[in-house]
User: Fold this.
Amino acid sequence: MTQMVAQKARIAALEVERDRDIRRAYRVARRDIATRYREILESLKDKWTSKKNGDGGLTVDAELARLKEMEGDCEDLVASAAVSDWSISELDLPQVSDDSVDQVGGSSVPDDSAIFDRDILDILNG
Assistant:
C-alpha cells in the first residue's frame, strides 16, 4: 500500500513537472515569435515612414525578397519552438492499476493572445 502511495506521488510530481515545462516552453516560444513579429512590424513602419517622406526608394522586388527572408526566419522560430511528446508513457514507471489511481483532469496552457494583440496595436499606433 505504501509503494502505491509513493508511486502516485511520483507520477503526480512528474505530471506537475511536465506541465510546468510545457507552459515554460509555450511562453518562451510565444515571446520569441512576438518579438520577431514586433521587429517585422517596426521595420515595415520605418519603411513606410521613409517612403512617405520621400527619403527611401523602396522597390517592390527588394521588399518582397526581404519579407520572404523574414518569413523563413519566423518559420524557423516556430519549428524550433515545437514541443516534443511530453507524454509520461515513455518513462519507465511501475505500473499502477486504473482502479487505484484517482483520475485528474488535464491542465490548460494560458492564452497570451490578448497581450500579443495589444503589443501589435501599440507598435502600429506609435
